[in-house]
Amino acid sequence: MLILCCAVRGIIQLCYNRPVFDAKDGMAQTTGNKEIQADAMDIMITEAGKLAVLADGIGRENTGKVCAALAVKEFMDAFSFYRTLHNPEYFFERTMYGLHRSMQKVLEERQGGASVGVVFLAEEKLYYAMAGQVRVALLRGGELIPLCDGQTIGVLAQRAYQEGKLGRQETIWSLGDKDLWNYVGKDGFCQMELCEVPVQLKKGDLVVLMTKGIYEEAAYAEIERVLTNEMLTAQSKADRIVQCADRSPAQDKDNGSIMVLLTDGAMR
After folding, report:
1. Contact predicate 237/227, CB 8 Å
2. Is residue 212 a contact partner of residue 256, using CB atoms and an 8 Å limit?
3. What is the pLDDT of residues 74-93, one digit of tens each?
4. Which of 71, 24, 80 is nearest to 51 (CA)?
5. Can you tell me the distance from the alpha carbon of 207 to that of 267, in angstroms, rounded to the nearest whole number?
6. DSSP three-state, residue 256
7. pLDDT tens per residue, range 138-192
8. Residue 11 vs residue 209, higher pLDDT
9. What DSSP line would sit under 221-249, residue for residue?
10. pLDDT value at position 147?
11. How far apart are CA 66 and CA 38, in angstroms?
């Protein structure tokens, strides 16, 4: 009888803690001109809040796909145990560096990894972490506001110039360099970009995560125009932005993925 009671209690507890998913958020993808879709993404909602993860795999053949899938799985698995998350920054750092170690074991001698963007929404606040070049932005009042720029050589040079560590001419030469200097799984992976102060959310805000197959192929003004269309659902917005990227005339279009997240659930 005691064993039966314990089993029933355990089942009830599992159901109580089981993550749920929000069908109102939007997610869409395109393979661009590539043979393999090497992006992965997922959303989880628990009592702690909403977590969204977007990973852009890096590597030949299916290496990037494996790395991206691993990134999403590890973050989702780690988050599923939380009923409250008091220190998102610590969660981001611990999970990201743990992911890096796992990824290097999977990669062995192969070259690869993933750009990873993570957003956590809870208690009227937005927290994010990014390694690589996943873009995170906030739509507010009809304006799409970038929250992070990506860890490319050009961005690194611009920051070094602002800090007085790099001359003007060297900065100009580097501004157009889109090569990554940091991503998960890379030898020497050393840091991620964290929001220094959480973003205070307002009713009606949308959060957007994009990989380069979207933000490099779809015009910024077009992305903003679609996102501000109040007649469209979040899923319809994601679908239309992917269509914009697909219409790009570029010959070497990368995988593209976009997530359009509602924030109302994070409001009290």
Report:
1. yes
2. yes
3. 999 999 999 999 999 999 99
4. 80
5. 14
6. strand
7. 999 999 988 876 544 344 434 433 454 434 443 333 334 344 667 888 887 878 8
8. 209
9. HHHHHHHT-TTS-HHHHHHHHHHHHHT--
10. 86
11. 8
Residue recorded with tokens 């899938």 = 69
CA distance 133 to 140: 22
Tell whether 15 is covered by a domain.
no
Mean local confidence (pLDDT), 25-38:
92
State residue 73 phi and psi, 5-degree precision.
-60, -45
Count: domains in the chain: 1
Distance CA 92, CA 148 (A): 16
What range defines the domain where residue 106 resides? Answer: 20-139+146-152+180-266
The answer to whether position 120 is within a domain reads yes
Question: How far is it, in rounded angstroms, from Cα 26 to Cα 205?
Answer: 14
* CB 208, CB 134: distance < 8 Å: no
Can you say whether residue 124 is alpha, beta or left, with left for phi > 0 and alpha for psi between -120 and 50 degrees? left
Could you tell me which residues come within 8 angstroms of residue 24 by beta carbon, excluding any fewer than 6 positions away? 233, 234, 235, 262
Distance of alpha carbon 193 from alpha carbon 196, whole angstroms: 9
Of residues 58, 56, 49, the one with CA closest to residue 88 = 49
Confidence (pLDDT) at 146: 87
Q: Residue 38 domain-assigned?
A: yes
Q: Is the residue at 71 inside a domain?
A: yes
Q: 253: domain CATH number?
A: 3.60.40.10
185 burial via Cβ count (<10 Å: 0-12, 13-18, 19+): buried
User: What is the dihedral sign for C-alpha 12, 13, 19, 24?
Assistant: positive
Alpha-carbon torsion (91, 52, 111, 107), positive or negative: positive
